[in-house]
Amino acid sequence: MTNPERDPDVVTCESRTDTGGAADGVEIMTPREVPLGGLRAMTVRRTLPQRQRSLIGAWCFVDHYGPDAVAETGGMSVAPHPHTGLQTVSWLFTGEIEHRDSAGHHAMVRPGEVNLMTAGRGISHSEVSTPATTTLHGAQLWVALPDGSRAVDPAFEHHAPPPVSGPGWEARVFLGTLLGHTSPVATHTPLLGAEVLLEAGTELALDVDPAFEHGVLVDTGEVQVDGTDGVAAAAHDLAYAAPGRSVLTLAAGAEPARVLVLGGPPFGESIVMWWNFVGRSHEEVVRFREQWQEQVDGETLREGWFGRPVDEPLPPIPAPALPNARLKERR
Q1: In what ranges is there compositional bias, type Pro residues (predicted)?
Q2: CATH superfamily of 11-264
Q3: pLDDT digits (tens, 9 = 90+) for 103-120
Protein backbone atom coordinates (compact mmCIF):
# COMPACT_ATOMS: atom_id res chain seq x y z
CA MET A 1 0.00 0.00 0.00
CA THR A 2 1.16 3.52 -0.73
CA ASN A 3 1.38 6.23 1.89
CA PRO A 4 -1.59 8.36 0.69
CA GLU A 5 -0.72 11.58 2.51
CA ARG A 6 -0.20 14.66 0.34
CA ASP A 7 2.56 15.89 2.65
CA PRO A 8 4.05 12.72 4.12
CA ASP A 9 6.01 13.02 7.32
CA VAL A 10 9.78 12.93 7.22
CA VAL A 11 10.93 10.25 9.64
CA THR A 12 14.48 9.49 10.68
CA CYS A 13 14.40 6.44 12.91
CA GLU A 14 17.21 5.79 15.35
CA SER A 15 17.83 2.76 17.51
CA ARG A 16 17.03 3.24 21.17
CA THR A 17 17.54 1.12 24.25
CA ASP A 18 15.16 2.84 26.69
CA THR A 19 11.44 2.03 26.98
CA GLY A 20 10.34 5.47 25.86
CA GLY A 21 8.84 6.31 29.23
CA ALA A 22 6.47 3.34 29.15
CA ALA A 23 5.15 2.20 32.50
CA ASP A 24 6.56 -1.27 33.22
CA GLY A 25 7.87 -1.29 29.65
CA VAL A 26 4.35 -1.11 28.10
CA GLU A 27 2.87 1.94 26.39
CA ILE A 28 -0.31 2.49 24.38
CA MET A 29 -0.20 4.25 21.01
CA THR A 30 -3.50 5.49 19.55
CA PRO A 31 -4.05 5.80 15.79
CA ARG A 32 -4.52 8.80 13.56
CA GLU A 33 -6.85 8.59 10.57
CA VAL A 34 -5.51 9.00 7.03
CA PRO A 35 -7.84 9.01 3.97
CA LEU A 36 -6.74 6.61 1.24
CA GLY A 37 -7.75 8.72 -1.75
CA GLY A 38 -10.21 11.55 -2.37
CA LEU A 39 -13.51 12.61 -0.82
CA ARG A 40 -15.14 9.19 -1.22
CA ALA A 41 -12.24 7.36 0.31
CA MET A 42 -11.44 4.45 2.53
CA THR A 43 -9.81 5.61 5.75
CA VAL A 44 -6.86 3.84 7.35
CA ARG A 45 -5.82 4.08 11.01
CA ARG A 46 -2.06 4.61 11.34
CA THR A 47 -0.32 3.69 14.60
CA LEU A 48 3.28 3.49 13.39
CA PRO A 49 5.37 5.56 12.94
CA GLN A 50 4.57 8.06 15.69
CA ARG A 51 6.55 10.93 17.13
CA GLN A 52 7.52 8.99 20.23
CA ARG A 53 8.28 5.72 18.46
CA SER A 54 9.19 4.99 14.87
CA LEU A 55 9.99 1.28 14.83
CA ILE A 56 9.13 -1.91 16.71
CA GLY A 57 11.92 -4.26 15.73
CA ALA A 58 12.16 -3.71 11.97
CA TRP A 59 8.41 -2.97 11.72
CA CYS A 60 8.26 0.64 10.57
CA PHE A 61 4.69 1.20 9.33
CA VAL A 62 1.32 -0.08 10.61
CA ASP A 63 -1.95 0.78 8.82
CA HIS A 64 -5.21 -0.80 10.02
CA TYR A 65 -8.46 -0.44 8.10
CA GLY A 66 -12.10 -1.55 8.15
CA PRO A 67 -14.44 -3.18 8.35
CA ASP A 68 -15.48 -0.91 5.47
CA ALA A 69 -18.53 -1.30 3.26
CA VAL A 70 -16.99 -1.18 -0.22
CA ALA A 71 -20.27 0.11 -1.72
CA GLU A 72 -19.86 3.25 0.41
CA THR A 73 -16.09 3.80 0.41
CA GLY A 74 -15.21 2.46 -3.02
CA GLY A 75 -12.84 -0.04 -1.43
CA MET A 76 -9.11 -0.08 -2.09
CA SER A 77 -7.82 1.24 -5.39
CA VAL A 78 -4.11 1.96 -4.99
CA ALA A 79 -2.54 2.61 -8.39
CA PRO A 80 1.10 1.78 -9.26
CA HIS A 81 3.58 3.37 -6.87
CA PRO A 82 7.21 2.68 -5.91
CA HIS A 83 8.99 1.27 -2.86
CA THR A 84 12.63 0.91 -1.82
CA GLY A 85 14.45 -0.55 1.17
CA LEU A 86 11.49 -2.36 2.73
CA GLN A 87 9.17 -5.34 2.71
CA THR A 88 5.38 -4.97 2.63
CA VAL A 89 3.28 -7.44 4.61
CA SER A 90 -0.41 -7.70 3.67
CA TRP A 91 -2.85 -9.39 6.08
CA LEU A 92 -6.64 -9.46 5.62
CA PHE A 93 -9.49 -10.30 8.00
CA THR A 94 -12.26 -9.86 5.39
CA GLY A 95 -12.33 -9.25 1.62
CA GLU A 96 -9.91 -9.83 -1.22
CA ILE A 97 -7.24 -7.65 -2.86
CA GLU A 98 -5.53 -8.09 -6.23
CA HIS A 99 -1.76 -7.48 -6.20
CA ARG A 100 0.41 -6.76 -9.25
CA ASP A 101 4.09 -5.85 -9.17
CA SER A 102 6.95 -5.05 -11.53
CA ALA A 103 8.84 -8.22 -10.61
CA GLY A 104 6.16 -10.14 -12.52
CA HIS A 105 3.95 -11.25 -9.64
CA HIS A 106 0.16 -11.26 -9.89
CA ALA A 107 -1.52 -12.61 -6.76
CA MET A 108 -4.55 -12.34 -4.51
CA VAL A 109 -4.49 -11.27 -0.87
CA ARG A 110 -7.06 -13.30 1.08
CA PRO A 111 -8.01 -13.59 4.76
CA GLY A 112 -5.60 -15.69 6.79
CA GLU A 113 -2.95 -15.72 4.05
CA VAL A 114 0.12 -13.50 4.11
CA ASN A 115 1.62 -11.82 1.05
CA LEU A 116 5.13 -10.47 1.60
CA MET A 117 6.69 -8.29 -1.10
CA THR A 118 10.37 -7.39 -0.89
CA ALA A 119 11.05 -4.04 -2.54
CA GLY A 120 14.81 -4.19 -2.07
CA ARG A 121 16.57 -1.88 -4.53
CA GLY A 122 13.23 -0.85 -6.05
CA ILE A 123 9.82 -2.15 -7.14
CA SER A 124 6.44 -0.77 -8.20
CA HIS A 125 3.09 -2.37 -7.44
CA SER A 126 -0.66 -1.83 -7.22
CA GLU A 127 -3.39 -3.10 -4.89
CA VAL A 128 -7.09 -3.13 -5.78
CA SER A 129 -10.00 -4.76 -3.94
CA THR A 130 -11.81 -7.26 -6.15
CA PRO A 131 -15.36 -6.71 -7.52
CA ALA A 132 -16.66 -9.54 -5.33
CA THR A 133 -15.48 -7.83 -2.14
CA THR A 134 -18.32 -6.25 -0.15
CA THR A 135 -16.44 -5.66 3.12
CA LEU A 136 -12.75 -4.84 3.39
CA HIS A 137 -10.90 -5.24 6.68
CA GLY A 138 -7.22 -5.83 7.37
CA ALA A 139 -3.75 -4.44 7.99
CA GLN A 140 -0.90 -3.24 5.81
CA LEU A 141 2.54 -3.44 7.42
CA TRP A 142 6.03 -2.41 6.36
CA VAL A 143 9.36 -3.85 7.47
CA ALA A 144 12.61 -1.89 7.09
CA LEU A 145 15.43 -3.84 5.45
CA PRO A 146 18.85 -3.74 7.14
CA ASP A 147 21.71 -2.08 5.32
CA GLY A 148 23.15 -5.36 4.11
CA SER A 149 19.87 -6.39 2.43
CA ARG A 150 18.22 -3.20 1.29
CA ALA A 151 19.60 -3.44 -2.27
CA VAL A 152 18.48 -7.04 -2.89
CA ASP A 153 16.44 -7.90 -5.95
CA PRO A 154 12.66 -7.55 -5.61
CA ALA A 155 10.84 -10.69 -4.50
CA PHE A 156 7.43 -11.98 -3.43
CA GLU A 157 6.23 -14.76 -1.10
CA HIS A 158 2.80 -16.15 -0.24
CA HIS A 159 1.97 -18.35 2.76
CA ALA A 160 -1.26 -19.67 4.29
CA PRO A 161 -0.32 -20.47 7.90
CA PRO A 162 -2.27 -23.30 9.53
CA PRO A 163 -4.27 -22.42 12.64
CA VAL A 164 -2.89 -23.47 16.02
CA SER A 165 -5.29 -23.49 18.94
CA GLY A 166 -5.82 -24.13 22.63
CA PRO A 167 -8.44 -23.46 25.31
CA GLY A 168 -10.11 -20.17 24.39
CA TRP A 169 -7.63 -19.12 21.69
CA GLU A 170 -6.58 -19.64 18.07
CA ALA A 171 -3.56 -18.24 16.24
CA ARG A 172 -1.95 -18.04 12.81
CA VAL A 173 1.78 -17.37 12.73
CA PHE A 174 2.68 -15.70 9.44
CA LEU A 175 6.26 -14.61 10.29
CA GLY A 176 8.77 -16.04 12.74
CA THR A 177 8.04 -18.52 15.55
CA LEU A 178 5.29 -18.56 18.16
CA LEU A 179 3.21 -21.18 19.98
CA GLY A 180 5.31 -24.01 18.53
CA HIS A 181 4.78 -22.97 14.90
CA THR A 182 7.41 -21.48 12.58
CA SER A 183 6.56 -19.67 9.35
CA PRO A 184 8.65 -20.58 6.28
CA VAL A 185 8.52 -17.00 4.95
CA ALA A 186 12.01 -15.49 4.70
CA THR A 187 12.87 -12.17 6.36
CA HIS A 188 16.13 -10.24 6.54
CA THR A 189 16.01 -9.59 10.30
CA PRO A 190 14.42 -11.75 13.01
CA LEU A 191 10.69 -10.97 13.06
CA LEU A 192 7.44 -12.12 14.60
CA GLY A 193 4.00 -11.69 13.05
CA ALA A 194 0.87 -13.52 14.19
CA GLU A 195 -2.90 -13.14 14.38
CA VAL A 196 -4.35 -14.23 17.74
CA LEU A 197 -8.07 -14.73 18.50
CA LEU A 198 -9.11 -14.76 22.17
CA GLU A 199 -12.48 -15.74 23.56
CA ALA A 200 -13.96 -13.42 26.19
CA GLY A 201 -12.09 -13.69 29.49
CA THR A 202 -9.25 -15.77 28.04
CA GLU A 203 -5.69 -15.15 29.23
CA LEU A 204 -2.89 -16.45 27.00
CA ALA A 205 0.78 -16.51 28.00
CA LEU A 206 3.06 -16.34 24.96
CA ASP A 207 6.65 -17.52 25.26
CA VAL A 208 8.65 -14.87 23.39
CA ASP A 209 12.27 -13.99 22.73
CA PRO A 210 13.45 -11.60 25.49
CA ALA A 211 15.65 -9.82 22.93
CA PHE A 212 12.52 -8.76 21.03
CA GLU A 213 10.38 -5.70 21.50
CA HIS A 214 6.72 -6.31 20.67
CA GLY A 215 3.68 -4.51 19.36
CA VAL A 216 0.12 -5.72 19.96
CA LEU A 217 -2.33 -4.21 17.46
CA VAL A 218 -5.89 -4.64 18.75
CA ASP A 219 -8.43 -5.19 15.98
CA THR A 220 -11.52 -5.97 18.08
CA GLY A 221 -12.28 -6.13 21.79
CA GLU A 222 -10.06 -4.95 24.62
CA VAL A 223 -6.85 -6.65 25.69
CA GLN A 224 -4.73 -6.33 28.82
CA VAL A 225 -1.07 -6.59 27.80
CA ASP A 226 0.99 -8.34 30.49
CA GLY A 227 -2.09 -10.11 31.82
CA THR A 228 -5.05 -8.98 33.88
CA ASP A 229 -2.86 -6.60 35.88
CA GLY A 230 -1.31 -5.13 32.74
CA VAL A 231 -2.03 -2.13 30.53
CA ALA A 232 -5.38 -2.09 28.69
CA ALA A 233 -5.42 -1.60 24.93
CA ALA A 234 -8.74 -0.82 23.23
CA ALA A 235 -9.76 -1.58 19.65
CA HIS A 236 -7.40 0.06 17.10
CA ASP A 237 -4.69 0.77 19.72
CA LEU A 238 -1.11 -0.47 19.35
CA ALA A 239 0.47 -1.58 22.63
CA TYR A 240 4.27 -1.48 22.78
CA ALA A 241 6.12 -3.92 25.07
CA ALA A 242 9.81 -3.29 25.67
CA PRO A 243 12.49 -6.02 25.39
CA GLY A 244 13.45 -8.07 28.42
CA ARG A 245 10.38 -10.27 28.90
CA SER A 246 10.35 -13.98 28.06
CA VAL A 247 6.56 -14.15 28.44
CA LEU A 248 4.03 -11.76 26.89
CA THR A 249 0.59 -12.31 28.41
CA LEU A 250 -2.61 -11.21 26.67
CA ALA A 251 -5.94 -11.14 28.51
CA ALA A 252 -9.23 -10.51 26.71
CA GLY A 253 -11.96 -8.50 28.41
CA ALA A 254 -15.70 -9.13 28.47
CA GLU A 255 -15.84 -9.55 24.69
CA PRO A 256 -13.84 -11.71 22.25
CA ALA A 257 -10.69 -10.05 20.95
CA ARG A 258 -8.52 -10.25 17.86
CA VAL A 259 -4.96 -8.91 17.80
CA LEU A 260 -1.87 -8.91 15.64
CA VAL A 261 1.34 -9.59 17.57
CA LEU A 262 4.42 -8.06 15.94
CA GLY A 263 7.99 -8.25 17.17
CA GLY A 264 11.70 -8.19 16.54
CA PRO A 265 14.96 -7.10 18.17
CA PRO A 266 15.56 -3.33 18.19
CA PHE A 267 16.56 -2.48 14.63
CA GLY A 268 19.91 -0.90 15.51
CA GLU A 269 20.16 1.27 12.37
CA SER A 270 19.00 4.78 11.53
CA ILE A 271 16.69 5.09 8.53
CA VAL A 272 15.05 7.97 6.68
CA MET A 273 11.49 7.17 5.63
CA TRP A 274 9.57 9.51 3.32
CA TRP A 275 6.48 8.68 1.25
CA ASN A 276 7.07 5.09 0.05
CA PHE A 277 10.85 5.10 0.35
CA VAL A 278 13.12 3.83 3.10
CA GLY A 279 16.66 5.14 2.73
CA ARG A 280 19.61 6.29 4.80
CA SER A 281 20.01 9.94 3.80
CA HIS A 282 18.30 12.99 2.31
CA GLU A 283 20.24 12.59 -0.93
CA GLU A 284 19.22 8.97 -1.31
CA VAL A 285 15.52 9.71 -0.90
CA VAL A 286 15.78 12.60 -3.38
CA ARG A 287 17.35 10.20 -5.90
CA PHE A 288 14.60 7.61 -5.37
CA ARG A 289 11.95 10.26 -6.00
CA GLU A 290 13.71 11.49 -9.17
CA GLN A 291 13.99 7.93 -10.50
CA TRP A 292 10.27 7.39 -10.03
CA GLN A 293 9.28 10.73 -11.56
CA GLU A 294 11.40 9.93 -14.61
CA GLN A 295 9.05 6.99 -15.22
CA VAL A 296 5.77 8.86 -14.67
CA ASP A 297 4.48 10.39 -17.92
CA GLY A 298 0.95 11.57 -17.19
CA GLU A 299 -1.20 8.45 -17.10
CA THR A 300 1.59 6.28 -18.48
CA LEU A 301 4.35 4.53 -16.53
CA ARG A 302 7.50 4.24 -18.63
CA GLU A 303 10.08 1.53 -18.20
CA GLY A 304 12.76 2.47 -15.71
CA TRP A 305 14.40 1.69 -12.38
CA PHE A 306 11.19 0.59 -10.64
CA GLY A 307 9.75 -1.32 -13.60
CA ARG A 308 6.03 -1.63 -14.41
CA PRO A 309 3.46 -3.95 -12.79
CA VAL A 310 2.28 -6.74 -15.07
CA ASP A 311 -0.83 -6.00 -17.16
CA GLU A 312 -1.60 -2.91 -15.08
CA PRO A 313 -4.63 -0.85 -16.21
CA LEU A 314 -4.32 2.01 -13.68
CA PRO A 315 -2.20 5.15 -14.21
CA PRO A 316 0.75 5.64 -11.83
CA ILE A 317 0.72 7.79 -8.69
CA PRO A 318 3.15 10.74 -9.00
CA ALA A 319 5.43 11.39 -6.04
CA PRO A 320 4.45 14.31 -3.81
CA ALA A 321 6.72 17.35 -3.65
CA LEU A 322 9.65 17.18 -1.28
CA PRO A 323 9.68 19.57 1.69
CA ASN A 324 11.33 22.96 1.06
CA ALA A 325 14.15 21.95 3.34
CA ARG A 326 16.62 19.17 3.88
CA LEU A 327 15.01 16.06 5.29
CA LYS A 328 15.71 16.26 9.01
CA GLU A 329 15.83 13.84 11.86
CA ARG A 330 12.81 12.98 13.93
CA ARG A 331 13.60 11.24 17.19
Answers
A1: 312-321
A2: Jelly Rolls (2.60.120.10)
A3: 999 999 999 999 999 999
